[in-house]
Specification:
By secondary structure, the chain is of the alpha/beta class. It contains twelve helices and 16 strands.
């Protein structure tokens, strides 16, 4: 074994012993990195999982969306975040796993019009670091390019694990391009709570997006807790509207203090790998309709009753009409589910005195399609009783 081979194995052994956990996702080239990491004993101390979503449908399924370009820095970053989100679910609470995403466009059995390149990204609690290398066409065969990318992945991972390692730049020739970027993690939830943002989209994999297209079917609520009735109502609404639904939680409330960051994060865990969530600073439906024009909001009959009751507008009927007029002008509408009061009475849309002018804003969900007789407050009360010491 040559000195360079010994040094390489020692580097990988140091990564294994770094105390970090990592999940890898690699497509397009560089999958040899998985073998490099596992060829040296001790890989189980480091590696949580390694995935190769090679087909475009497999990649779209892994990410939760179809990327505009498979081989790009954006795709590598998205893969790293998705890998890390999975790793968080698979490791003990308090662990800070590393997610690595790598994508490449290398020598193929058909002439490649674009550059031969690789993009590698790592994500952890500190942020995202990504690098790009552009290889000279015709200088290496497929095996040679694969070897460069595989080693670059190991080196980039080593640095994130706190192991002193050369830059992937060292693997390229002087005339080949290499660039790297580090993006510190910004806590978007804290920015939302501070009023710097009005809306934050949280995807099922936990990724937070500031500029996602607005959802057209929204289920607002506090979801404290999310329960079977919410899940059933969401599914019925999707069937009726033939659209995907997003849940919406406002971190501010008309008559309550803003939610604490810890509370918001805890409630989000209920939706992990299940549903998209819109976090907003929009406690009223007028404000929600400004953020989500043309959206349909899924509400209960009790909420619908408040929307058309002047007492909820300071006993000012004009303010009620102005609010409903703005909501209507935004293209918003409401799907209304039946609600059961504390006396067991069923309340439907027909029980609500909706002004004729705004009748078209509201559509009832038939009782035979949805009825759930237990409220979140009852579920919380049961939880408190169960938590009490038993004598």
């Amino acid at each position: 074994m040559s000195p360079s081979d010994i040094a390489w194995q020692q580097l990988i052994a140091a990564v294994h012993g770094s105390g970090r956990k990592a999940a890898l996702a690699i497509t397009g080239g560089g999958t040899g990195a998985i073998g490099e990491l596992l060829r040296v004993p001790g890989g189980s101390r480091l590696l949580i999982e390694a995935q190769v979503p090679y087909d475009e449908k497999a990649l779209a399924t892994f990410l939760g969306f179809a990327p505009g370009q498979a081989s790009s820095s954006d795709t590598a970053v998205a893969m790293a975040r998705s890998a890390r989100a999975r790793a968080v679910r698979l490791t003990p609470k308090g662990t800070d796993p590393v997610g690595l995403g790598a994508t490449a466009a290398l020598v193929s059995d058909r002439p490649r019009r674009g550059e031969h390149r690789f993009h590698i990204a790592v994500a952890d609690a500190a942020g995202v670091a990504h690098c790009t290398g552009v290889l000279a066409k015709g200088r290496r065969d497929r095996a040679g390019e694969e070897d460069v990318v595989a080693r670059a992945i190991v080196l980039w991972l080593a640095r994130t694990c706190g192991v002193t390692a050369p830059s992937p730049r060292s693997l390229l020739d002087a005339d080949e391009h290499f660039a790297e970027t580090v993006v510190p993690m910004v806590d978007s939830i804290d920015r939302l709570l501070a009023g710097e943002l009005d809306r934050l989209t949280v995807l099922p994999d936990g990724e937070m997006v500031l500029t996602a297209p607005g959802a057209l079917l929204l289920f607002p609520g506090s979801f404290n807790p999310l329960h079977a009735g919410h899940v059933l109502l969401a599914r019925v609404a999707e069937e009726l509207r033939q659209q995907p639904l997003a849940f919406e939680i406002s971190v501010t409330n008309v008559d309550k203090p803003p939610l604490a960051g810890e509370t918001v994060r805890h409630r989000l865990t209920q939706f992990a790998w299940q549903s998209r969530v819109e976090l907003t600073r929009a406690p009223t439906f007028v404000e929600k309709s400004r953020l989500f024009p043309n959206a349909t909001f899924v509400i209960g009959a009790d909420t619908a009753a408040r929307l058309v009751a002047p007492r909820y507008y300071g006993d000012d009927e004009l303010q009620m009409h102005l609010a409903l007029e703005e909501i209507a002008s935004s293209g918003a509408s409401f799907l209304v589910a039946v609600r059961i009061d504390s006396a067991g009475r069923v309340h439907t849309l027909n029980d609500i005195p909706v002004p004729r002018r705004y009748a078209d804003l509201f559509t009832e969900i038939p009782e035979h399609r949805f009825r759930f007789d237990t409220s979140s407050s009852e579920i919380r009360a049961r939880g408190r009783i169960l938590d009490q010491p038993q004598g």
